[in-house]
Write a structure and sequence with these properties.
This protein has 327 residues and is of the alpha/beta class. The chain folds into 2 domains: 63-164 and 244-324, 3-Layer(aba) Sandwich (Rossmann fold), CATH 3.40.50; 169-240, Alpha-Beta Plaits. Helices cover 34% and strands 20% of the residues. The strands form 2 sheets. It has an 11-stranded mixed β-sheet, with helices on both faces. Strands 9-10-12-11 form a 4-stranded antiparallel β-sheet, covered by helices on one side. Helix 4 runs parallel beside helix 11 (313-324) and helix 6 (169-186) packs antiparallel against helix 7.
């Protein structure tokens, strides 16, 4: 019998290490947790059910540009009696893109709304960012919520439990040499390397236009020569480990850990992000959430249900939620 699309989305296989951050010595106890259904089983099941399962597809999504648009296009989606899981990216979503990640901040209004939602008993808040875990934690600064850094490779729940994706030792050995080679060869003319310990970002926003193309291609060659994936971001290249783990898998793990295997039947879910890496979460959550891609491009292809026409509209998204989930 064919497994439903919902089950296929929420039962990924991953081996994660769960540990308390308070224990950092070599004698720490390590708890291995495995999740169901291997990728090969998934592929086999998908092939046998090909005629019955409609896989997620990218398309141009309807636009939302105001608070009124949320109320008009999503009537009845939110319910004050139903728990809401609110999963959010940081850069380009909660905070406008800046010339440097160090200069990225939320507005006072955005910060106030986020803090109000974070303490509501019917709202579960999680941040899923490409930044390093401790970096996004310090940027958002809300205690007791779940944070995922490095595109979900590092996750820390509100009670301090850690989930770190176990990267192959051989791959980890290539990380430091990759950073050194990038710094020595392409960290120039305004470009710089953001070392996030598990992954890195090569930023070339400030490089003169006549030089950026060549530097970008050289950076990609270096990243790939060390066995890492080079993914395009906003005026940057993300170097990520070549593992089947991303923001989508992190979102599913977070939801299952918090609400159990039947979470999709019991809660409402909202996800918002602005980058190509956020599309992994939008794809994984398609059909069991409402997702929003922040983009000014009316023709952008996305897995999201809706397109937010600017980063400012994210504030309207939070206001819409706040109108339903009052104190």
């Amino acid at each position: 019998m064919c497994i439903t699309v919902r089950l296929l989305r929420i039962l990924p296989l991953v081996l994660l290490i769960s540990r308390s951050p308070a224990r950092t010595t070599a004698s720490n106890s390590i708890v291995k947790r495995s999740y169901i259904a291997s990728s090969s089983n998934f592929a086999a099941t998908s092939a046998s059910c090909n005629s019955k399962i409609k896989m997620p597809e990218k398309r141009t999504a309807p636009a939302i540009s105001s608070l009124e648009d949320f109320e008009r296009k999503l009537p009845g989606y939110l319910n004050e009696n139903t728990t809401l899981a609110l999963l959010l990216d940081y850069d380009g979503t909660l905070a406008a893109i800046a010339d440097s990640p160090k200069n990225t901040y939320m507005t006072v209004a955005m910060e106030k709304l986020l803090n109000q939602l974070a303490i509501h008993p019917k709202i579960f808040l999680a941040m899923i960012s490409g930044r390093a875990l401790n970096d996004v934690q310090s940027r958002v600064g809300i205690p007791g919520i779940t944070y995922a850094g490095n595109h979900g490779l590092e996750i820390e729940s509100g009670n301090g439990t850690r989930h770190d994706y176990p990267l192959p030792a051989k791959l980890q050995q290539h990380y430091a040499p990759m950073v050194v080679e990038l710094v020595e060869n392409v960290q120039k003319n305004g470009a710089w390397v953001e070392d996030k310990t598990v992954s890195l970002t090569y930023h070339y926003r400030d490089v003169p236009a006549d030089l950026s193309g060549a530097l970008k291609q050289q950076a990609i060659r270096i990243i790939e020569s060390h066995g890492y994936l080079a993914n395009q971001a906003h005026d940057a290249i993300e170097a990520k480990p070549p593992v089947n783990w991303h923001k989508g898998e992190a979102a599913l793990l977070i939801l299952k850990d918090k609400f159990g295997p039947n979470w999709a039947d019991e809660i409402k879910v909202i996800f918002a992000g602005d980058d190509n890496t956020d599309e992994d979460a939008m794809r994984s959550l398609q059909g069991v959430s409402k997702s929003f891609r922040v983009s000014a491009d009316p023709e952008i292809q996305t897995y999201a249900d809706f397109r937010l026409t600017s980063q400012n509209v994210v504030e309207d998204l939070l206001r819409w939620i706040r109108k339903t989930y009052k104190d």
